[in-house]
């Protein structure tokens, strides 16, 4: 599940686990909680709002709850559960990509598979360097990439070499390597320091007092192919208020 704290213009969304799950696996309840919380953030947005997402413990998120899928009574039912999670996470990705404010992922630890996807849906990614990797294990698990996963990774990772290493080789990327690859904006030496750095960045962005809807439309215009797959309409025509 997740919690939401509001500090002035800053929204701090924290993945808190579900039934003792410290890996923050993205099962139906967690996905529903994320979508509901992001809807609340969008509804309460004002000029200068900023979102930070993080998680408790050593994991940001290890992706879909495959353990829940495997508990189904048959392989067909397990596949149906996985397809359901893939489908239900798509609106969460769309919500992050259309949120009317800057967004920052403060990665307190491992972000793998769908957890990695959540991270790159943010405008900024900050990561701790002492613990945690970015990892797309689908090639190792024998799972194809959902269409919106592929579109978002194409949009956010422009180097074909980095794309090959991350998606087709399944490399585990630490914070310093992520900075060199252009996936991570900055590396920090603890969970506390990555959140503190994210708050400093959020304060800096908040002072710009950007109009949220315009900010969201500019974001969407930068990633038109991904937004088309996410069913997000583009609105490239603005009326100046100056």
From TrEMBL:
Pfam families: ECH_1. GO terms for molecular function: isomerase activity; very-long-chain (3R)-3-hydroxyacyl-CoA dehydratase activity. Its EC number is 4.2.1.134. The keyword Lyase applies. Keywords: Isomerase, Lyase. It is an enzyme of class 4 (lyase). CDD domains: crotonase-like. The keyword Isomerase applies. This is Enoyl-CoA delta isomerase 2, mitochondrial. It comes from Stylosanthes scabra.
